[in-house]
Amino acid sequence: MMVLVLCLTIIFMVIITLICSPLFYETTLYIGSPCSFRSTIHWFGRFFYYDWTYTYGKQPHSSSRLGWKKREMQAPSIQLKTAPEQSFKTEDILKDLEREDTGLSYKDIKDAAPRHSKQSDSHFFWWKPLITSQTFITAFCIFLGRLLYHSRIRRLSLEGTLGLSRPHETGILAGALYAIIPANIRTLHFNFIEERYDCTFHAAGHIYPAALIFYTAAFLLSSPVRCILLQWHKTRKEEDHG
After folding, report:
1. Is-contact 65 49, C-beta < 8 A?
2. What is the distance between the alpha carbons of residues 179 and 51, in angstroms, rounded to a whole number?
3. How far apart are CA 223 and CA 242, in angstroms?
4. Per the confidence metrics, is the pTM higher than 0.85?
5. Residue 163 has pLDDT above 80, yes or no
C-alpha cells in the first residue's frame, strides 16, 4: 500500500512540475523580398522543441525534437497534372449538339431540384443563436483576455525600413505604432518618399500550461458553453436515433 501511495505521489509531482514549466514561444516575420516567417516553441528546457519556417515561393520546413529524437519534415511538393489533349472531331460535336437538344432544360432541372427549406437551416445551424448571444460573447472575451494577459509578449521589436504606397498611409501607420508601442519601434524607419518593405517583426514570450488548462476549464464550465454542449449532445442523440 505504501508503495502505491509513493508511486502516485511521484506521478502527481511530475505532472505538476510539467504543467508548471513555462512554454516558450518565439516568432519572426520578415516583410521584404522574399517574405519569410519562422515560429519556434520549446518546453521543459528544450526537452520538447518545434520549429516551423516558411519562405514565400518555397516549401515549408519544420523540425521537432522530443528528448533526444530529432525529426526533420518538409511539405511534399505539389505537382499539377495537365489535362490530356483532346481531339475534336466533327462527328463528336454533332453528337453533343444532338444530346443537348434532347436533354433537360434549365426549368426541368430547377423543378426537379429539392426545395430549400428554412427548417434545414435551423437544423444544421442550431448553434448560431447560441454563439451570437451576449452571454457567450462575454464569456469568450473574458477567456481570450485572460489568455492574452497571461501570455503577454515579453519581447517585441520592429526594425528596418517601411514605406507604404502613399505617404499619408505611411504617416497613419507610423502614428498608430508610436501611439501603441513607441518603445518597440526605435529601430524602425519610415520611408515617406517611396514604397519600401524591408523590416523584421520579432516577438517572444512564455506561457504556463497550468494557466491554459485552468482558463480553458473555466471557459468550458461556464453557463453559455455548457448550454451549447448540452444542445450539441441532444442534437447528436436525435440524429443517432432518427
Report:
1. yes
2. 33
3. 28
4. no
5. yes
Q: Which DSSP category does 36 fall into? A: E
Neighbours of 18 (CB within 10 A): 13
Instruction: Give one word for 80, left, alpha or beta, with left for phi > 0 and alpha for psi -120 to 50.
Output: beta
d(CA 160, CA 169): 18
Return d(Cα 156, Cα 163) in angstroms, integer: 20
3-state secondary structure of 204: strand
Angle value at C-alpha 101, between 98 and 106, nearest 5 degrees: 145
Q: Report whether 55 contacts 68 (CB < 8 A).
A: no
19 pLDDT band, cuts 50/70/90, is: confident
Q: Is 163 exposed, middle or buried (0-12, 13-18, 19+ CB in 10 A)?
A: buried
In this structure, how many other beta carbons lie within 10 angstroms of the beta carbon of residue 221?
A: 10
Over residues 39-49, mean pLDDT: 84
Cα–Cα distance list, 238 to 115, 220, 228, 235 (Å): 23, 23, 15, 5
The confidence score (pLDDT) of residue 113 equals: 54
| Closest-CA residue to 75 (of 53, 93, 91) | 53
| Closest residue by Cα to residue 203 from 24, 31, 56 | 24
